[in-house]
Design goal:
About 20% of the residues lie in helices and about 40% in strands. The protein is of the alpha+beta class and about 180 residues long. The protein folds into 2 domains: about 5-80, Ribosomal protein L6 (Outer Surface Protein A, domain 3, Alpha-Beta Complex), CATH 3.90.930; about 85-165, Outer Surface Protein A, domain 3.
Length: about 180
Amino acid sequence: MSRIGLKPVVLPEGVTLEIKEGVIDVKGPKGELNVTYPSCISVSVDAGVAHVARANDNPASVAQHGTVRANLANAIKGVHEGFKKELEIQGIGYRCSMRGTSIVLNVGYSHEVVIAPVDGVKISATDDTHIVVEGIDKQKVGQTAALIHDTKRPEPYGGKGVRYKGEHVTLKEGKRATGGKK
């Protein structure tokens, strides 16, 4: 039984849904997104609340029930508020800068790493060590932030690298000499 799929999705003020065969068009103040859904799922809107239901209890429809509801809720939140991921750069000499709409990372390699944003995603550097990724599509924002994070993940001995804001990195103790025992 899908508990997520049974939860209703409240439509905020200014957000409208247009339900077509297999596609839901979500429009809001920040933009427009499309959510696809299979034929075994039905979506209805009653008095500003969207309900997602499944036709039967086949494993395929049960599996899609909660997924469609979550994708719809993410699209509604995205066109109303938007999504944001913040990243921090730590390490001596590690920094970032903007080149047009792309971000340039200097993170310990012999070359600069340039990452261009996907359509619908905005990357900005608030200063040399802080990056903000914003957009209306949760998947695209997360994917772009993951590409930046993966350029240089935080290493466990010094903690240097690109990390999400608030990410905890467990530091390991380095090797040390043991005093001449043979």
